[in-house]
Amino acid sequence: MADDPPIIRRGKGLRLSTESPEAASDAARPEDAPAVQPVEEAPATEAAPQIRRGTGFRLSTQASPEEQAALEPEEVDEVMRERDALARSGAVRWRIQTSRGPLSYLHAGSGPPLLLIHGWGASARLWAGTLADLGQQRSGYALDLPGFGQSPARPAPPTLKTLAEDVIAFADTVGLTTFELAGHSLGAAVAACVAGRYPERVSRLALVALGVRTFAPELTTLDWSRPPVDLSLGLARPFFEWWAPVNRLLMQSPPLALTLSALLLHHEPADPELWREYLADHAAVDARAYVTALTAVAAPQVREALQHIIVPTLFVAGREDRVVSLSEVMSAHQLIAHSSLTVLDQCGHLPMIERPEQLALVLRGFFR
User: Fold this and answer.
1) 151 neighbors 122 (Cβ within 8 angstroms)
2) What is the mean pLDDT of residues 34-55?
3) Which residue has the higher pLDDT, 226 or 54?
4) Which range of residues forms the domain containing residue 176?
C-alpha cells in the first residue's frame, strides 16, 4: 500500500520501520522511551547524536512472509521466538547510535530508569521476563553488549573497561543522568565497573551471579595472553560468520544443549523457551567477547571496582551455581560495606531461566 512506511531489510528477519513513535501504538514506545535516530545517519566515530522527540526508529521482529521466505529455517524460528517473547514482556527493540558505536536494546515499562546488562553467552532477551515483572515500577532498558545479541562487535577487542564505557555512552545517548543498574555474570562485572568508576551515575546496584576468584591461574594466563588471542580471533572472524548458522544448529542439538545445561542449570528450566533463546544467543557471540566473559570472574578490575562502590548493593546467588560458586559470591559481597546477599535455593547460574519468579520477587523488593 502506498501509505505503508518504507522497509529496510536487516539480517535475521528484522525490519527497520520509519514510522514515528507517535504513529505507533502506545505499547510500541512508552512515553518516557527516547526517540532514536537511524544508525546510518551517524558514523560510530562522531559525537553522540542529539535525541529528537518524534523522529524515532523502531526495530520490529515482525518480518513479512516475503522476508521470511529469504531466510534460513532456523533464522525464521529465531525471529518468531523473539517476537513472541517481546509480546509477552511488552518490550520493544530499539537500535541507536552512541558515541562509541551502535547498540541494540529492549525497552519496557515506565518510572525511574533501570539498566539491565546480560551475562555470559546471552543477550537482552535474558531479561525479558524481568522487564515484564518490573514494568509497573521501572522504565527498563536491557542492553545487548557489543558482540552479543544484535549489537555488532567493536573493531577493538572488548574489555571490562570498554564495556563499562559502552554502558555510560548508552545512558548519555538516551539522556539518563542517573539510573539504577542490574547485571548478571559478565554483565554484573560490567555493572560493578560502571558503579565503581562512575559513582555519581548509579543510585542502586544489583549483581546476579558475580563472584571474585583469587586463584585462577588458567584464567589469569588467558587474560595475559589476550593480544595474540584477540588477533587470531579477529583474523578468523570471516570463518566464524560463515560457520554461524551451523553453530546455531549444533548449540541447540541435544548433546551440546545437555552439556551446557549440566554446567549452567541445576534442574529443568522453568522457562524452556527462554533456554532455547539463550542457546541461540550463545552460538552467535563474538569470539573475543566470549573470552572477556570467561576471564571476568578472575579479573583484578572487578575486585578493584567492588572496593569503590558506595551505593546500596544487592548480591543474588544460586546455591548450586557451578560457574560462580557461592563462596566466590560471598567474597565479592564482603568487599562492599553494607551490601546484602540473597541466595536462591535449587538454582544454578541462570536464575532468569530456572527461578524467574523468585528472582523477580527479590528484584522487586530491592528496586521498590
Assistant:
1) no
2) 34
3) 226
4) 7-216+290-366
Q: Which amino acid is residue 316, in one-letter code?
A: V
Q: What is the residue whose three cell numbers read 568508576?
A: 197
Asked if the structure places residue 109 within a domain, the reply is yes
Span 67-83, pLDDT tens digits: 344 444 544 455 555 66
- In CATH, what number is assigned to the domain containing residue 331? 3.40.50.1820
**Helix axis angle, 254-264 relative to 237-251, nearest 10°?**
90
Q: With beta carbons less than 8 A apart as the criterion, state whether 90 and 27 touch.
A: yes
User: Would residue 249 count as lying in a domain?
Assistant: no
Q: Which of 39, 29, 40, 36 is nearest to 53 (CA)?
A: 36
Total number of domains constituting the chain: 1
CB 180 within 8 A of CB 156: no
Instruction: Give the three-class secondary structure for 346.
Output: coil
Residue 180 phi/psi, 5-degree rounding, is -90, 155
Give the E-state strand segments of the chain in sequence order. 7-9, 15-17, 58-60, 92-98, 101-108, 113-117, 139-143, 179-184, 202-208, 313-318, 340-344
DSSP string, 108-150: E--SSEEEEE--TT--GGGGHHHHHHHTTT-EEEEE--TTSTT
Q: What is the dihedral of CA 309, 314, 320, 326, to 10 degrees?
A: 40
Which one-letter DSSP state was computed for residue 47?
P
